[in-house]
């Protein structure tokens, strides 16, 4: 089993000379220090002893810090090495203690002890699973049981601080709960600090519990001095803040297309979301003003990219092409030749004197199969100066897609003076777009203009404005489509356009008929993630440059501390994530309205919490017959829950599950899908046994003694599957009968999958 990425991050941090603040530990027994560790302590103390900055003047000595850590935690015997460090800041100082194992197997226990108070502030523990005890199937601990472990742990270390916290929604790590070896389940519990009734999420206690062992594996305390905090008294009431949100900061109606590579077709959605440059609505609780926490980095739109083309090969004899290859050949016949595309590029963009064409490529768009581009690059021919020019031309219709001049900003802007204003730069950009795309110009909305500073040069108090970045957003049915539009940069000294990019996709857009209103969307935002008054440390913009405060200041604001979605479906109000898929609140128990009192309720809710059963309509339909597609989707999610794209495109929703099922071995490659077919008990046995990797053993049907009363009713090639599924307790015979043709309900399928995951 490979160590987790978190452990790797901690190790890297230690190599660089500091500790990550995320640590953990488990156990509470006192462990002796052996001679090797004592020598390590003496060596480190000698190194640190001559430098007050390394803890010489600390109230808690290194030896005392070690004793504190050992009294709290049992040091595993296999961790035979020990090192220390000392970290000092204006607010706190810490002894960083690390026990670890030499050799390739790895393992460590790290503890951070406050050198002023002797309190343990952070811990981290990682040991590889013992051979034969690897993690498989369902975790031994539910989230509720793990929470009890976390709170008992905090009570032991910080009982008084724990009283000043409140549990926030957590983000757990749940790997695919496969029968095969998997990573550990990790439940994360974040207890945010409350100061005078006001939430301060930057402070608090974070604990992570291993769901397979019940051990605390990470712990972190973050606690600041609050003397500079404003009094916890708001002047704007919560109802007033809600009204400000609804009237001044309501989400906008947008078209949204989920990211889908490899040319996969996904539908465009109508959604309500906050503007792209606003991650969170912040309302000053004293003045009622909207606060802009930070300026987002300015990004243009992305054109496609692909593989090199243009090489010529000679074949002595013809080779029969596949249908997909024939399509590609036919498409190439309809594209512009390199020479014609090059003419288009030269006519659209002025090539600087002395520039030489150095490369050309025909590229396939990463997201759209139909889109292909010619990409040309020029650079100075004498190599006496840096710089270059890239131009992209649509290989189908010859449109100018993008160009960019690459310049040496340190040389070119030493003496640059701003001669063009924002308004003049915008006029230049608009004239260029109108000339190149007159029809599309009427379909865009001016979005923003942002001054782009040049490098900070000597003798200048502030950098000069290098250029203006201007963005226009596409409008469809009077609704913004932020992923499409134009991006232009204009040089402030010369008025020259140095960068241009058009992104314009040929898509089907749903009409905005029957959608909820913007006010309804705002109220839904507040219903799903209510505004709360709390403290935030903000770096607000001070001037024209977007230059932040030199140090963040604490502000009393209204905000949405539990905002776990990015947009709303404009028709239903459903919360959606960044890929446009429905969001289930983090840490919330998944319940179905039609499972009350049903014997399979626990199994269904267990699978739903693990992401194997998906909640969409709020109903599970436990007594409906499970279809082949539904069963295969549940089995695939035991191994891989990243379906890639949102459902609803031209391809059927189940297609990706069948593809992954073939790769996993649940079905055979090339097996014809029958998605709506009702699943019977022998088919259930076949698919579950294949999921366990027992296909070869089950296929040897003649070696099994089939003693079911209805053995003659079992298909010959599935007798081994039936015997194994019963022997492993996956499918229970009924009064000595296997009932191979009996149909399986969705509830029975869920119970079988739970037994499959527990059958390690």
Overview of the molecule:
The structure is a single chain. With 760 residues, the chain is of the alpha+beta class. Helix content is 25%, strand content 23%. Helix 14 crosses helix 15 (655-664). It contains 19 helices and 24 strands. It has five domains: 5-222, no CATH class; 238-301 and 514-575, no CATH class; 306-364 and 371-406, Nuclear Transport Factor 2, Chain: A, CATH 3.10.450; 408-505, Nuclear Transport Factor 2, Chain: A (Roll), CATH 3.10.450; 601-758, no CATH class.
Task: Offer a few descriptive terms.
single chain, 760 residues, 8-stranded antiparallel β-sheet, 24 strands, 25% helix
SSE map:
Layout: H1 5-16, H2 35-49, H3 62-72, E1 81-88, E2 93-100, E3 108-114, E4 120-126, H4 143-157, H5 159-162, E5 165-168, E6 186-195, E7 198-210, E8 216-222, H6 238-248, E9 252-256, E10 269-273, E11 282-284, E12 290-291, H7 323-333, H8 338-348, E13 355-364, E14 372-380, E15 388-394, E16 400-406, H9 409-412, H10 422-436, H11 438-441, E17 444-453, E18 465-476, E19 479-491, E20 497-503, H12 518-528, E21 532-538, E22 553-559, E23 567-569, E24 575-576, H13 601-609, H14 628-637, H15 655-664, H16 681-691, H17 695-699, H18 719-727, H19 746-758
Antiparallel strand pairs: 1-2, 2-3, 3-4, 4-8, 5-6, 6-7, 7-8, 9-10, 10-23, 11-12, 11-22, 13-14, 14-15, 15-16, 16-20, 17-18, 18-19, 19-20, 21-22, 23-24
Helix pairs in contact: 6-12, 13-19, 14-15, 16-18
